[in-house]
Structure formats: C-alpha cells, structure tokens
Specification:
Layout lengths: L9 H4 L7 H13 L3 E5 L5 H10 L1 H7 L6 E7 L9 H14 L6 H14 L6 H16 L2 E7 L2 H7 L2 H13 L4 E7 L9 H11 L3 E4 L4 H11 L9 H15 L3 H14 L8 H6 L2 H12 L3 H17 L12 H13 L3 H7 L3 E4 L2 E4 L2 H9 L8 E3 L6 E3 L2 E2 L5 H12 L4 E3 H8 L11 H15 L9 E4 L6 E4 L13
Helix pairs in contact: 5-6, 5-7, 6-7, 9-10, 11-12, 11-13, 13-15, 16-19, 20-21, 20-22
C-alpha cells in the first residue's frame, strides 16, 4: 500500500490523529487479525464518520498497526444505492470500489485494477465480473495483501439484497479467509434487525466482533465544536469562547448530531447566545427534538425506563450543572444506591452506548439535553418483562400483569424462559397449552388469539409490536420474544 501518493481530502485531514482513538484501537486489532466485525451505534453518534476516517486516513491507521510484512488496504464499498440488486451489479460495485481508490496501490496494481474493472463494467452476465473479482483477490493473496471491505449501513443493503447476494459475500470470505475481511456498520445489534433472515449467512462472521461507537470524548468534541464555530472566534474573546465550547460539550454529551444543531444555532445568534438558556432553547428546536427522538428510539424499552428513572434522580436530587450539585440526604443517597444495584449490569452496557457515564456523583446521563428528554419521557416506556421465581407472577417493569388470561400467562411465561429464540407455532402450542388438552386439535388461530390478548396488555402499540414479533418460515412460522422490548427503529412491520 502506498500512503504517500494518497490524498485523503481536506475534510478528513481536519481530524486529528487522536480522533476516536479508543475505537481505532479496537478496529486495528480486528484488521491485524484479518477478522470481520460490526460497528454499531445509536443514531447521531457518528459511526459513518468513524468508518470514513478509518478508510481515508491510512496514515493514521498505520500508527495503530503492529509492524508486519503484510500490507493492509481498506476499501469503502457503497452498497446502498445500487441501480439493481443482482449478482452482476454486486460484483461490479465491488470492482468499482477498488477502481475508485486505485491511487492507494502501487502503479502495477493500479493498472491491473483498471483493466479488471473496465473489462467488466458493462457486463450483465455475473460470471464475468465474478471472475474478475476473484482474479483480483487471488492477485492480492499472492502479494500477501489483506483487503478489508468497509460497508456502511449494511442493514439497508440487506433490506433489498437477495439471499443469493448475501451468500455470495459469505462465499467470497470463505474462499479468501487469509486475504478478505468485512467491516460493516449497523444501527443496532444484529439480533434486533427486522430482516434477520437475509443477514443469516453472515451473522456468525459479523457478530463475533462488535465495536460500539459512543459519544465523542471531550477532546474530540471540543475539536468538532471549534472547527464548526471557527468564524465566531474573531468576534468573541478567547475566555468566553473556551467557556462556551466546554458548555456545549456538557449539554450535548459529545454526540455529534447534537453538537451540529447546537453549533448551527450558536452561529445564527452569535453573541446573543450567552443571554439565553441553551437547553430550553435547543429543546424547542424541531431538528434537535428529532435527533433526540431518533437516539431514544434506538434504545430498548428497558433501556428507556432505566434512563428515565436515572434522569428523575438527577433532576430531583441534583439540580443545575453537575459541579454545582448540593449534598444529598441519607435517604436520597440510599435510593440512588438501590437504583444502581438494581441495574448493575445494564448501566455499564448503556455507558458503552454513550448515553450515561459514571462520575464522582455516581451514574449520570450523558448531557443535559438527553437528561431533560429522558425526564420528559418518564412513564412512557414499558420496561422489561420478567417472571417472579417464587410466585410465578409476570411483571412488566414494576407492574404486575394481572389481567392476562391463563393461557396467555402460560405462553408469556414460556417465552420469558426462552427469550430471543424463534419458536414455531407448533413448539409454542406444545409448550404452553395444558397437558390435559389434545394439542393436535389446537389451531394456530387459537395461538394467534392468545398472542393478540398478550399484546394488548404489554405492547405500547399492539399493531407495531416490540416484545412479541412474528416471523415467517417454511413449513411454518412462529414468534420471537424480546423481554426488554426491542428498539422502535427496528420494530416489526406487519
């Protein structure tokens, strides 16, 4: 790979070499091992920017890689806007991706790439571009060059791709295990994808390594704010500028999508920004509410309940900016300790997503804007469904589900004991109906009515379920249960 002749462009050179250093370290380990993986984040965290930086700053990536004789080249592949979703187009799109970054290779390799692409760019027979792509990978195999195909929004590709196209990507990886690997981005974990069947051939390759992209750290957030508001530096004194930059970091929590809205508003009002309440003003802006809602919808129902409860603790016991918090009473401290103990596993998982963090005051939601949004949604989410091990009673969060009919309770208890698994209609009937019932006579319509009654009790919107999801299959379909209530952004569409 020749990084000297490669010009990443002005946009990417403005990012410092330390940008997203924690995530870059994780991805570098995958790359060194030649392993595929998935980059995941909530909406607005900037995973697309991270992948762009990873691909277009090979000079920075090189500093994270251990010395080796094996070269590594990352190839960004756009599979979202394909003109057709067939094998010939898929092969040509991958070859075109090599063609578009040919300057990263030595001259002899550039010539080969141009030749293979030009020979097949108009081919309708998939065998021709497939052969060209395989020849190219065989060539890199002989050159001891590792190739990483980096695919953003892989979920959108899977929505339209045929199973044959997904199998082709798996087949290429299997044929060139020492040469080819994939890094793809998703807006959520694989298990929550509404089109799980389409990604199935690649699932075990992609979900072995997962990198969650959270909010920017303080240094990266400051750099982004300073760049976007650089024109204001001429009219605002340095001390005030520094204070406002730090304040934007505090209210946005470092989420790039929130930072953009805050900076654009600051640019529009200029020096008047110091005269208003930023949080209240930004929460009234439609684009900020939209970005907050998108992030919020990427959380499970259980996540939302926990964050709303955490926001309630923060606002009730610690008004104002975190550093100005008043001393808590013994009762208040005990309540917070009980909350933290109850969610001792979930809180670190939410921290990995960037929505909360642990400070000297305990667990806190990341950013004043998200804190206010979470507080405004107290009581709107349903929480996790669980069964009391002693009484067998079924709860949703802290609410006892007392109105379930007996068969509905039996079905829900079984699903709770076997979460996330795809159960066929027959398996559910066998497991949930009483032993004294002739199960061969129980129809899928009876099961459907039981599920319908359960959904009326547990779903925020029974027409768009988040807990009990239909799945279709041959010779029969069934249901899949998410006790945590999967994210709204990936809910089942009947």
């Amino acid at each position: 790979m020749s990084t000297e002749m490669f010009n990443p462009g002005r946009f990417w050179t403005r990012f410092p070499p330390t940008y997203r250093s924690q995530e870059m370290k994780i991805l570098a380990e995958w790359i060194m091992a030649g392993e595929s993986g998935t980059v995941v984040s909530l909406s607005g965290a900037g995973r697309a920017t991270l992948l762009g930086y990873l691909c277009r700053r090979p000079d920075v990536l090189q500093t994270y890689l251990r010395p080796t004789d094996r070269q590594v080249v990352l190839v960004p592949v756009d599979l979202i806007n394909l003109p057709h979703y067939d094998l010939a187009t898929l092969y040509r799109a991958i070859l075109r991706s090599f063609y578009e970054i040919q300057q990263r290779f030595e001259r002899t390799t550039q010539t080969r790439i141009r030749d293979w692409y030009r020979r097949t760019e108009a081919a309708q027979d998939p065998f021709l571009p497939q052969s060209a792509l395989r020849e190219l990978l065989i060539y890199f195999q002989g050159q001891e060059t590792s190739i990483g195909l980096v695919i953003n929004r892989f979920d959108r590709f899977c929505e339209s791709a045929t199973l044959q196209m997904i199998n082709t990507l798996r087949g290429l990886r299997d044929s060139f295990k020492e040469t080819l690997f994939y890094i793809v981005s998703l807006p959520q974990e694989v298990v929550y994808l509404s089109h799980l069947e389409s990604i199935a051939p690649l699932r075990h390759i992609l979900d072995t390594n997962v990198c969650w992209v959270d909010a920017l750290n303080a240094d990266d957030a400051r750099q982004m704010i300073q760049y976007r508001t650089r024109h204001l530096a001429r009219s605002i004194n340095a001390q005030t500028m520094h204070q406002l930059v730090d304040y934007i970091v505090a209210i946005t929590g470092g989420f790039p999508a929130f930072i953009r809205v805050a900076c654009d508003w600051w640019l529009s009002v200029g020096n008047q920004a110091s005269e208003v309440d930023w949080v209240d003003t930004l929460l009234q802006k439609q684009n900020m509410r939209h970005r907050l809602r998108e992030l919020w919808n990427g959380l499970t129902q259980e996540d939302q309940v926990v964050l709303s409860e955490l926001a309630r603790h923060q606002i009730r016991y610690e008004p104002g900016i975190e550093g100005e918090a008043e001393a808590q009473s013994a009762v208040q401290k005990k309540g917070m300790q009980q909350f933290e103990q109850q969610y001792t596993v979930l809180l670190p998982r939410l921290a990995a997503r960037g929505v909360c963090r642990y400070s000297r005051f305990g667990w806190r939601i990341n950013g004043h804007l998200l804190t206010a949004y979470a507080a405004a949604n107290v009581g709107q989410s349903r929480g996790k469904i669980w069964v009391d091990a002693v009484t067998g009673a079924v709860f949703q969060g802290s609410k006892l589900l007392a109105n379930l009919p007996p068969i509905g309770r039996s079905v829900l208890q079984f699903l709770t004991e076997h979460p996330h698994t795809r159960h066929t209609h027959t398996a559910l009937i066998e497991a949930a109906w009483p032993d004294d019932v002739l199960k061969a006579g129980v129809t899928t319509e009876a099961l459907y009515q039981a599920i319908r009654n359960i959904r009326k009790e547990i779903e925020p919107d029974p027409a768009s379920p988040l807990y009990i999801i239909n799945w279709r299959g041959q010779p029969e379909g069934g249901y899949q249960f998410f006790p945590e209530g999967r994210p709204v952004t990936h809910q089942y569409q009947p």
